[in-house]
Amino acid sequence: MDPVMLAVLFGGAMLAGWVDAVIGGGGLILIPLILAAFPQIAPAAALGTNKLAGVMGTASAAVTLVRKRGVDRSIFWRYVPLALVASGAGASAASLISKDVMRPVIIVLMLVVGVFVALKPAFGSPDAVAQSSRTRTLLGLVAVAAVGFYDGIFGPGTGMFLIMAFTAIFSQSFLDSAVMTKVVNVSTNLGALVVFALGGNIWFTLGLALAVANVIGAQIGARTVLGGGASFVRCAVLALVVIMACVLTYQQLHLT
């Protein structure tokens, strides 16, 4: 393999790890690079290989964020198993729903999220204190099931949707929601990864090699989130809305 392309691929995996740790969406960087570096690879294998590298990076970021910031331990038995099952179900049903139908819906949802965050500066503020109740917990379970299924069936913006859901449901800061999101996101990635593995759509050698760079980027990203706090996560949400809306709009216009 061309050493320059190899360096670009590993650099891209590192950047993707940083992006995933901050807000999510690293696949937008790494998947095109894998396809460009290996034109002969099947798209499903590129997706599965990216998922293998991504789950390693996201897991490492989750560990760092939980250790430094802390998280309600009940998330591990309330939300993690549900996210795993829901994302696996979504990945299994991915072929049943056209992405051409999904994209316009997600574009509209992202724009709604962006406008809401921009017009509500108090939403997710650093001073917000998490609220807990049975109703909030139930709503959290519904949100995790829905977003987990979405991650398996389509995926773009999963991290952002989880952050918004947790912030709204538990009336907490963006930073606390980001920590919860990383833990749940590991599980949604694992659910989809199992489906890819069962279908033989993972290039394990490449995926594990890229995982090293992804973990490095994820560790830098986790520290960026901790250093920037809720205000940084808020800016990251707005930036992701703009980027993802543009990318999905481009895909909708050029791939249909």
Short summary:
This protein has 256 residues and is mainly α. It has helices at 3-22, 27-37, 43-69, 75-78, 80-92, 99-119, 134-153, 158-170, 174-198, 204-254.
Can you describe what's shown?
- The protein has 10 helices and no strands.
- Helix 1 (3-22) runs antiparallel to helix 2 and helix 9 packs across helix 10.
- The protein has helices at 3-22, 27-37, 43-69, 75-78, 80-92, 99-119, 134-153, 158-170, 174-198, 204-254.
- The longest helix has 51 residues, at 204-254.
Summary tags:
single chain; 256 residues; mainly alpha; globular; transmembrane helix; transport; membrane
Content of β-strand: under 5%
Backbone CA Rg = 17 Å
| Morphology | globular
- Count of helical segments? 10
Order of helices and strands: HHHHHHHHHH
Question: Multimeric state of these chains?
Answer: single chain
Topology overview:
Elements: H1 3-22, H2 27-37, H3 43-69, H4 75-78, H5 80-92, H6 99-119, H7 134-153, H8 158-170, H9 174-198, H10 204-254
